[in-house]
Amino acid sequence: MMGERGLGRILLLLLPFLPIALGAFVGINIGTDVTNLPEASDIVAVLKSNEITHVRLYNADAHMLKALANSGINVMVGVTNEEVLGIGEYPATAAAWINKNVAAYLPATNITAIAVGSEVLTAIPHAAPVLVPAMNNLHKALVASNLNFVVKVSTPQSTDVIPKPFPPSAAAFNSSWNSTLYQLLQFLKNTNSSYMLNAYPYYGYTQGNGIFPLDYALFRSLPSVKQIVDPNTLFHYSSMFDAMVDATYYSIEAMNFSGIPVMVTETGWPWFGGSNEPDATAENAQTFNNNLIKRVLNGSGPPSQSDVPINTYIYELFNEDKRPGPVSEKNWGVFFTNGTSVYPLSLGTSGRITGNSSGIFCVAKQDADSDRLQDGLNWACGQGHANCAAIQEGQPCYSPNTVANHASYAYNDYYQKMQGVGGTCDFQGTAMTTTVDPSYGSCKFTGSSNSSSTVTTPVASAPFSPIGGGSPTSAVLASKLKYVICTISVVLTLL
């Protein structure tokens, strides 16, 4: 029998890997069907520079697992669909898989979960009978290595296993999978693991024949007459995402299980599509993902489980241009392979925008009022003499065609030219400075290290008044007065 001292040593070794509840997180999926996929070390550099703390790999690639060592990034590794059958049939195969792909990399690489297959029930239904045995075999191998409290095992399923997800309170799993799903839920309950869900409001909207409005899919607020309400519970659903997650909770409840959290292992929105895919736009993708991040990081759950955060992984890091199917299938990435973002994206609680660090930039606040942003944009491109050619239709910074995106470009162009003569980054409280270069794709912001534009200082022109209707000159004076007052306060404090 192990002594207390020996047990203490093991607990100390395991301590860095025990999951710590620090609120909800947003991670990202890394697909590999990419032409000229960057080196693993370069991919990790992109993750770290954008403060991405959780990643999901679709396999157990040795190069990625080595590159992620000592990065502080939490890693979910994947058992491929091709591997499920062998692992489900042979415990020795499962043990070998754990030794090779998990135990060999811990503790340097912080592997916290194993995703067994991808949508096995709908993608390879013939493997359904061995899905839960495969999970059990992997879990037993983790137990044998004393890693079962460190690494959790689950399996991502699509919303297709729920034939009628609305209203959520009436949702139930497809009865043809009852036996497998019961075993799956029992396994998750016994091992304190999460149900992994792939939830795509993009498909829910585009395949919904106009039943739901686009704003509902994009997390935009709906007028009271259009709000989506479950007639059985009278719960209001502010987004299709929440409804999909809640439909899963109710489906789990219908099988007499509770206390199993739902984790969203895939969600996102394509930023480009074919002529028959009008909703696959950069504007919609930016809106969806930025609103998704805000939604998840507020730490609440869907209406029926409001106190359970919805940990979520965005699909996906890079465009997988080698994937078959429609044009949109190849354009879900939020970064290009050179590390620049496809569109401005706020990935964390600080509101920072994705991009490469280079100097100081002035950008629109993510939660700024659209009318005030439009006023600021109009002023910057007019009286402010900002060069707004790049945000005109057909030009590199026109898309995403949003007021916030255009305002960021105009604000920054004005700020780079005018900060030396008193220009501020305020614009009625709709702007903020950032050290992260907001350039994306071929859209280069003034002041960027890779921008071809030069910053010239024209004759002094005033910044947009921080007080609506005030004269531009008064804004400069107010800014200088604030500086003088601050300086006096510091002197008095020292005295």
From TrEMBL:
Localization annotation: Cell membrane
Occurrences of domain X8 (ranges): 360-445
Molecular function terms, GO-annotated: glucan endo-1,3-beta-D-glucosidase activity
Reaction equations catalysed: Hydrolysis of (1->3)-beta-D-glucosidic linkages in (1->3)-beta-D-glucans
UniProt KW keywords: Cell membrane, Disulfide bond, Glycoprotein, Glycosidase, GPI-anchor, Hydrolase, Lipoprotein, Membrane, Plant defense, Signal
EC nos: 3.2.1.39
One of the record's GO cellular component terms: plasma membrane
Alphabetized Gene3D superfamilies for the sequence: 1.20.58.1040, Glycosidases
SMART domains per the UniProt record, alphabetical: X8
One BP annotation, GO: defense response
Topology in the lipid bilayer: Lipid-anchor; GPI-anchor
Top-tier EC class: hydrolase
Main location as per UniProt: membrane
A Pfam family of this chain: Glyco_hydro_17
Span of the signal peptide: 1-23
PANTHER family with a match to the protein in the record: GLUCAN ENDO-1,3-BETA-GLUCOSIDASE BG1-RELATED-RELATED
Protein family per UniProt: Belongs to the glycosyl hydrolase 17 family.
Protein name listed in UniProt: glucan endo-1,3-beta-D-glucosidase
